[in-house]
Amino acid sequence: MGDWKAITVPVLSSDSKNIFQYTSAKKVSPSSMNSQVLRLPLPSSKSTHGFFSAFCTEENIEQSVSYLDRELTTLGFPSIYAESKGKELNLISIINCMNELLVLQHKNLRAQEEVEIQHLKLGSDMEHLQNCYAKLKEQLELSKREIVGLQERDRQLQSKNRNLHQLLKNEKDEVQKLQNIISSRATQYNHDMKRKEREYNKLKERLHQLVMNKKDKKIAMEVLNYVGRADGKRGAWRTDKTEARNEEEMYKVLLSDYEQRQKQLLVENAELKKVLQQMKKEIISLLPPQKQKPKERSEDGPVLSDLEEDIGELNKENMWELSCETVREQLTNSIRKQWRMLKNHVEKLDNQVSRVRSGALNEKDVISREDHELETEKLELEIQQCKEMIRTQQQLLQQQLMSPCDDDTTLILQDCYLLEERERLQEEWRLFREQKKNFEKERRSFTEAAIRLGLERKAFEEDRGTWLKQQFLSMSTDCKHSENVTAPSAFLGSSDQDNRLAISTSQRKPHCVLSVPVSPEPCQMSQYITHNSSSAASKTPAGDSKSNQWVERDKEETE
Amino acid sequence: MDFSELFKLSGLLGRFSPDGKCLASCVQFRLVVRDASTLQVLQLYTCLDQIQYIEWSSDSLFILCAMYKRGIVQVWSLEQPDWHCKIDEGSVGLVASCWSPDGRHILNTTEFHLRITVWSLCTKSVSYIKYPKACQQGIAFTKDGRYMAVAERRDCKDFISIFVCSDWQLLRHFDTETQDLFGIEWAPNGCVLAVWDTCLEYKILLYSLDGRLLSTYQAYEWSLGVKSIAWSPSSQFLAIGSYDEKVRILNHVTWKKITEFEHPATIANTKTIVYKEVEKSLSVETERLSFPPTRALASSLFSTQSKYDVSQVPVSLQYIKPVADRANPKMGIGMLAFSPDNCFLATKNDNIPNAVWIWDIQKLKLFVVLEQLCAVQSFQWDPRQPRLAVCTGNSKVYLWSPAGCVAVQVPLEGDFQIVSLSWHASGDSMALLSKDNFCMCYLEREEV
Question: What number of CA atoms fall less than 13 Å from residue B203's CA on the CB side?
Answer without folding.
Answer: 15
